[in-house]
Amino acid sequence: MAVFKREGSPFWFIEFTYKGHKVRQSSGMTKKRDAEERERLLRQELKEQILLGKVADMSLGEAIDRYYDGVIVPKGNKGVATRELYALNQIRQGLGASTSIAKLSARVLADYKDSLLAEKKAPATVNRYLATIKAILRKAKDEWGTLAVVPTIKLLPLDNARYRWLTEDEEKKLLPVCAPHLRDLVVFLMDTGARLREATLLIWTDVDLDRKPRAAVRFMETKSGKPRGVPLSTRVEEMLRRLKAECPEGESRVFLYRPVGRGGVGDDGTRRGKAIPFNNPFGTWDTARKRVGLEDVNLHDLRHTFASRLVMRGVPLLTVSKLLGHASIQMTMRYAHLAPDAFDAAIDLLEGGQPRAEPVAPEVALAPVEDRSEGNGRGEFLNGQDGVVGEEGDEVGTEEAGTSANIRAGELEAV
Questions:
Q1: Residue limits of the Core-binding (CB) domain (predicted)?
Q2: Do 248 and 349 lie in a common domain?
Q3: Would you give the distance in Å from CA 47 to the centre of its chain?
Q4: Same domain as 74, residue 31
Q5: Roughly how many angstroms between the first and final C-alpha of the chain, as a whole number?
Q6: Last residue of a domain, one of 34, 52, 70
C-alpha cells in the first residue's frame, strides 16, 4: 500500500498511479489501517471512473458553465466575474469544451501548462488558470459527483522578490509630464493605495467630501470582494473637489478624460470631445514614464509607494494592511523591513527604557518620502502566496472608452 507519513503531520498520506492518473493527497486518517482502506477506496473509484463509467460523465464546457453560474456569479462582484469569465473562456478554448473532465489527467494538465508558457503567458497567469481548473475539478468531485479523483496539479514557483516605489525626486519629475487627467489618477493612486480598477470604477456616491476630520472614499469593487474605506490626503481631497465641480451633469464616474476630437478645446489647444470614463490609462502612462526615464515603474507600483511611505513613517503594519485591503497581514509583511523604528522600540523595551520612536504626525503621514536613508525606491523581499494569483500593473495599451459599472453603495469600513 502506498501510504506514508510526512514529518510533523499526524495524518497518513496516499500516493499511487493508475493508468497515468496520479493520486497524491492526505488520507485525513491518523491510523495506518484506516489510511490503507481509504487508498483502496480511491483506487476503486478511479477504476470505476475510467473503466466502468460509473461516475456520470461531464464535459469541461459543462463544468465551466456550472462553476461560473454556481460559484462566481453568486459572489455579486462584477469586476471579479468579468476577470474570471475571461480566464474560464481561455481554459475552455485551450483544453476543449467537449473534453471529458475525467480525461484531464496530470499529464494532460502538465502539457497544458507547458503550452501556456510557450505562448509567453506570465507565470502568475498560468498559475491562475491552473488554480481555476483545480477548483472546478474539486467541485466536480466533492459536490457534483462527476469526478472520482482530482489529478495532481503543480503550480509554478513565483518570484515575488521585486517591488518598486517612487521617491520624492521621481514624483517631482513624473507629475509635470503627465497629461492632466493622468496626473489626477496618479496622485490618487499614490495617496490612497487603490488598485487601478478600484480607482477607475470609483463613483461619486462613494466619495464623502463632508466627512470629518478627513474626507474619505469607499472602494466597493475590490479584489477581495469586501468594501474598504480610505481617508484622503489634503491634495487628493482638493483634487476631488475640483473634479466634482468639473464633472458633467449626470456622470457618476469620478475619473474622466476627453479624447481628441470635436466638442471643445483642451489646455494644449487640441480639440477634445465629450468626457468619458478613464478606463485604460496604460498608453498615456507609458508615454509619461518614458519621458523621465522611469520605464521600470508600473502603475501598480504607485500602490507600493503608498504602503512604503506609510511604513517608513512608523504606521503600524496592521493599519497599513487594512488601508490596502489585504486579505491577511502576511501580504503586508513585505514592507516590514522599511520600519526600523519598530525594531528600535523593541530593543528599548528590552533594556527597560521607554521607546525612542516619535509618533507620526497626521499631516505628514502621506507626505512624499525624501530620498535619504529611507531607500531609493527599489526594494527586494521574499514573499509567499500573495492571496489570489496575479496583481497585474505592467500592461501597456491605449486609452479607450468604457462603460460605466453599476456599483452598490455601502457603509464606510472602519480603518
A1: 58-141
A2: yes
A3: 40
A4: no
A5: 53
A6: 52
d(CA 26, CA 16): 12
Segment 276-289 shows an average pLDDT of 90
Q: Which residue has 486579505 as its cell numbers? A: 327
Q: Where are the alpha helices (DSSP H) in 48-140?
A: 60-67, 78-95, 106-118, 123-139
Write down the pTM of the prediction. Answer: 0.58
Do 327 and 287 share a structural domain?
Answer: yes
Going by pLDDT thresholds of 50, 70 and 90, the confidence category of residue 279 is confident
Alpha-helix residue ranges (DSSP H) falling in 292-339: 301-312, 317-324
- CB neighbour list of residue 260: distance below 8 Å, 6 or more residues apart: 270, 271, 272, 273
Cross-strand pairs, 244: none
Instruction: Indicate if the pLDDT at residue 87 is higher than 60.
Output: yes
* Tally of domains within the chain: 3
Phi and psi at residue 137, to the nearest 5°: -65, -35
Contact 201, 254 (CB under 8 A): no
Query: What is the average pLDDT across 112-135?
Result: 92
Residue 379 has pLDDT above 50, yes or no: no
DSSP reduced 3-state for 346 = helix
In the three-class reduction of DSSP (H, G, I as helix; E, B as strand; rest coil), residue 36 is classed as helix
Determine the structural domain holding residue 236 and report its residue range: 163-380
| Spatial separation of the C-alpha atoms in residues 69 and 130, rounded to whole Å | 19
Rounded Cα–Cα distance for residues 196 and 188 (Å)? 10
* Residues 311, 334 share a domain: yes
Instruction: Report yes or no on 399 lying in a domain.
Output: no
pLDDT given at position 241: 96
Q: Judge contact between 387 and 327, C-beta under 8 A.
A: yes
Q: Which residue in the block uniquely carries the three cell numbers 500592461?
A: 395
Top pLDDT among 100 and 338 is at: 100
Element (H, E) at 341: helix 340-350
The three cell numbers of residue 226 are: 469586501
Give the C-alpha separation, 81 to 73, whole Å. Answer: 6
